[in-house]
Design a protein that fits this description.
The complex is a heterodimer. Chain A is built from 12 helices and 13 strands. Chain A is α/β, with parallel strands linked by helices. In chain A, α10 links the parallel β8 and β9. In chain B, α1 crosses α13 and α4 runs antiparallel to α11. By secondary structure, chain B is an all-alpha fold. Chain B contains 15 helices and no strands. The chains are: A alpha/beta, B mainly alpha. At the A-B interface, α1, α9 and α10 of A face α1, α4, α5, α6 and α13 of B.
Chain lengths: 410, 343
């Protein structure tokens, strides 16, 4: 009996210890509950919610903005729902979320993140449930990053025509998922995509110019995610172009293995260990949290990594540069149209943001390249903008013969 | 070859140490199905510890000076913390199955269900996401041995032995191997070990000779919990970049299989774990394995499907089990709650 008591005591202590370090209202209630059951839980929890967002001051550092804000009336105008993967993946989802937070902070909007049930195995049903939950909590506009959202979004958009959907990495949706009878294009869905092949190209070009000749590419989504495919194809083209200019030959190992749910795994780490051990110098990690497995392998072998979607140089010393797309800008763009009553501009159409919109690029301030200068980069970027450097976006052509590049798909 | 050995050890050692954890529990008469759960919990607490110490900046100086001895001390401390957490967590199982005489299978399953949920709950609170990473950097620069520490340059070779067993290895792996040997000796060559084993075979007889069966079973399960917790952290450290996500990819269950596979005997378990680790390594990185060192990766050129390689570890397990299960002999009294009044 004593042991049981001691154990319960230990558990209670642990619970309260963890709960102290956060401002999540649910857990602070749990803490007060386990520490002092006699105390009124409701009253004691109320003041702890005062860590609310101060809408007056426009914060520019997204990490300083609250992830779990509470609004006075319990409704949230802007909702964000992810498809799979973690919110804080330090990549795609987090970049979008930062955009939401920055916009909300600058414009005093209420916002909330809804995670579909079942995490990485979330189905359309789970996502649909998250949409409904968001709309029930007063969402007027939903930011939905990830192309996997299409099925659930179609269902929700038909049912709630008054709610607008900003579909990041997405495309316009029709009423029904049928080629013969698609119905009307849904005017409340705005598909915003990026020309990832352009920033992939920039990254591939830059690292070959930097002197790397043995490259790798590891993508997420198992080759079904168009954005990741464009990244990879652009990367190979850029590497080939730079190699041709320098008159060298480069090798690229290319894989979709173990990345299908955008999460780190021991298998992927072992595979990357093998690559780095066998001479691969740098790997482009295009797939959310798989980044973690790849940097672990790179760090063990003095190898390097190219980050994706956002500037990932802060997360690992192995990152040379990152192929970025303007997630924050695109969220800002979409939400601005919604709140500025100009939704008709983008609703029901496909918006593709690329170099010409300054929505893709490399982080020149934080990259660790020495041979490839910022001036070279600006020149290349200008070339892509004015069309003198053309980057093919049709990734079905990936396996072609390149002039100065050997591609091995594994 | 170097790569293959290194990578096999990385896979095999957590399996080995957790399988030994299973042996300690089962030899004392308690079926410890909760290995997976305890691993998850241990990994989580270990990573939290690493994260907190990093936040506090205690080892930043050592990291900057490349003082690998201090960093390894840090890793060892994290392992101890994870072991303590595993031991505490396993007390739940001991209490249920020794004091309350509950069904051990159900108790273990309950822990397995509880651990990931609990851990995810805490990770969500701490990090607001589903993975808890190190607070800065990657695991290898902190916890891995590298030749630079011993004065070798980037292109210098340490020789076959050095390259394979020193460069790019985690000393945590060797700590586990030493512990494995030490505990195996304790189990077979000491009075304590004999008493522990007797409680798993015939607790009534042991009790009649004045051995406290309850105490022995508590001891067995607690050692088991400590080893599993430590194994969980070593798994997270070496294969998951020192991150915890409420998941150890089924290594706890694999360890159970390895234990049965190894017939509850340490030496067989070590062999089974190495075999399994080897095939797991081949499955994940067959395209990069260069066995004879001539620069040609033979396996990549064979016309065999990727999926076949991925199946290998499990197929091999099935095959070996089919041949060895005839001789398999579990401790006789395992799974039966000890009741003094029963004859």
């Amino acid at each position: 009996m004593k042991k049981l008591f001691a154990m319960l005591l230990a558990m209670a202590m642990m619970l309260s210890l963890f709960a102290c370090s956060n401002n999540n209202p649910t857990s602070s209630q749990g803490a007060t509950g386990s520490e002092a059951p006699s105390q009124g839980t409701e009253e004691s929890a109320a003041p702890s919610q005062s860590g609310e967002e101060n809408p007056g001051a426009a914060e520019t550092d997204p990490d300083k903005i609250d992830d779990n804000p509470t609004s006075a009336d319990g409704t949230y105008e802007i909702a964000m729902i992810t498809d799979v993967g973690d919110l804080k993946d330090k990549s795609f989802n987090e970049g979008t979320w930062n955009g939401v937070k920055l916009y909300a902070a600058a414009n005093s909007k209420t916002y909330k993140y809804y995670r579909p049930a079942n995490g990485n195995d979330a189905t359309d049903e789970d996502r649909y449930a998250a949409y409904v939950a968001a709309i029930k909590s007063g969402a007027k506009v939903i930011v939905a990053p990830g192309f996997l959202q299409a099925g659930a979004m179609r269902k929700a958009a038909v049912e709630y025509p008054e709610v607008n959907f900003v579909f990041i990495d997405g495309f316009p949706l029709t009423e029904r998922d049928s080629e013969d009878d698609p119905g009307e294009v849904l005017a409340n869905v705005a598909g915003i995509a990026f020309q990832e092949e352009q920033c992939g190209y920039l990254a591939g070009y830059a690292i070959v110019k930097e002197g790397f000749t043995k490259l790798g590419f590891s993508g997420g989504g198992g080759g079904t995610n168009p954005a990741c495919c464009r990244y990879g194809y652009g990367y190979v083209q850029g590497a080939n172009a730079a190699a041709a200019e320098m008159g060298v030959n480069v090798e690229v190992r290319y894989t979709w293995q173990y990345g299908s749910n955008y999460s780190a795994s021991p298998e992927l780490q072992a595979m990357m260990q093998g690559w780095y051990t066998n001479g691969t110098e740098i790997v482009f990690a295009a797939g959310g949290s798989i980044f973690n497995s790849i940097t672990a392998a790179a760090a063990a072998n003095d190898g390097y990594v190219v980050g994706v979607d956002v500037d990932q140089s802060g997360q690992s010393d192995t990152v040379v540069t990152s192929a970025m797309k303007g997630l924050e800008q695109s969220v800002n763009f979409g939400l601005d149209k919604h709140f500025g009553d100009k939704w008709a501009d983008i609703g029901g159409t496909a918006t593709s943001l690329g170099a010409k919109d300054d929505a893709v690029g490399l982080p020149t301030a934080t990259w660790s390249m020495e041979e490839f200068s910022v001036a070279d980069y600006e020149k290349l970027l200008a070339g892509i903008k004015d069309g003198s450097v053309s980057v093919d976006a049709d990734y079905d052509n990936l396996e072609q013969s390149y002039s100065n590049l050997t591609l091995t798909v594994e | 070859m170097t790569f293959l050995i290194r990578q096999t050890l990385i896979y095999a050692v957590p399996l080995m140490i957790v399988a030994l954890a299973g042996v300690f529990a089962e030899r004392s008469g308690i079926i410890n199905l909760a290995l997976e759960g305890i691993m998850i919990f241990g990994a989580f607490i270990g990573v939290v510890f690493v994260n907190m110490i990093q936040e506090a900046g205690i080892f930043d100086g050592a990291k900057a000076d490349n003082n690998w001895v201090a960093l390894q001390g840090f890793a060892l401390m994290a392992m101890l913390v994870a072991a303590a957490a595993g031991a505490v967590f396993s007390l739940l199982l001991s209490f249920a199955s020794v004091n309350l005489r509950a069904d051990q299978t159900i108790g273990g399953t309950a822990l397995n269900l509880m651990a990931p949920a609990l851990v995810l709950f805490f990770i969500r609170i701490i990090a607001n996401q589903n993975v808890l990473n190190m607070s800065g950097g990657d695991a290898p620069p902190w916890f891995m041995l590298r030749k630079a520490y011993f004065g070798y340059g980037r292109t210098d070779s340490m020789g076959f032995f050095g390259e394979t067993f020193i460069n790019q290895t985690y000393p945590a792996t060797y700590v586990c191997i030493l512990l494995f040997i030490l505990l195996s000796v304790i189990l077979y060559k000491t009075r304590f070990g004999l008493r522990l084993r007797s409680c798993g075979e015939n607790p009534q007889a042991a009790d009649s000779l004045g051995i406290n069966v309850y105490k022995m079973r508590y001891a067995g399960t607690t050692i088991s919990g400590a080893l599993a917790g430590m194994g969980g952290f070593v798994y997270a450290l070496t294969t998951a970049n020192c991150s915890a996500s409420g998941d150890v990819a089924g290594f706890g269950f694999l360890a159970l299989a390895v234990m049965i596979f190894g017939n509850w005997k340490p030496l067989n378990i070590a062999g089974a774990a190495l075999l399994f680790g080897l095939f797991k390594c081949i499955a994940a990185s067959y395209t990069s394995i260069d066995i004879n060192g001539d620069g040609v990766c033979m396996l990549a050129n064979l016309p065999i499907s990727v999926n076949l390689y991925r199946m290998l570890p499990y197929v091999i397990t099935l095959v070996v089990l089919a041949f060895t299960s005839q001789k398999s002999r579990a401790p006789k009294a395992e799974g039966i709650p000890y009741d003094k009044g029963q004859r």
